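Repro:
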Amino acid sequence: MNINGRTIFFDNPPVITGSAGVCGKKEGEGPLAEDFDAIFEDTTMGQQSYELAESAMLHDAIIRAMTNAQISPADVNFILSGDLLDQCMGSAFAIKDLEIPSIGLYGACSTMALSLSVGAMLVDGGADCVVAGTSSHFCSSERQFRFPLEYGGQRPPSAQWTVTGAGSAVIQSQGDGIKIKAVSIGTICDLGITDANNMGAAMAPAIAIIRP
């Protein structure tokens, strides 16, 4: 491992040996539909709440990723996951039956990149196999950050939508797949954006402002 500023370069790049992404009905109607492993028309996933539906989606994505990598939960050293809910409860319920040592992460829209980065560092540090994952659900996110859908609040036409879906990837020390050669860790950037409906404006400065 070689650290240059905020970027970590790996001498033996970890490999993404399997991955999966699942989504809801709205995402399945978009231009990326063919890239998903599964599209769920029923975004409640047969559950009693949107939060439980989000957990079900993440569990599904994790199982699909492990299947694609031809591994079982017993092969995994650590699982890193997070979501947009309080105390990462969505991901906690998604993985509680897998009996894999877990590390909860919260990076909002960067959680998947964060879990891949930390997972790659764990594998570079000696772990054989790590699973990274994240999820979000439009309905649970609205209840968490704005207003419950039942409230009937009006959204401006320009408001962004939080995705309904989940993704997961298996990172191993050896194997065939995409190699993670380096990761770069960002810093907190806050320009005082207070419009809850404009997530883009809040996140864009983190990309635009480049620090050494």
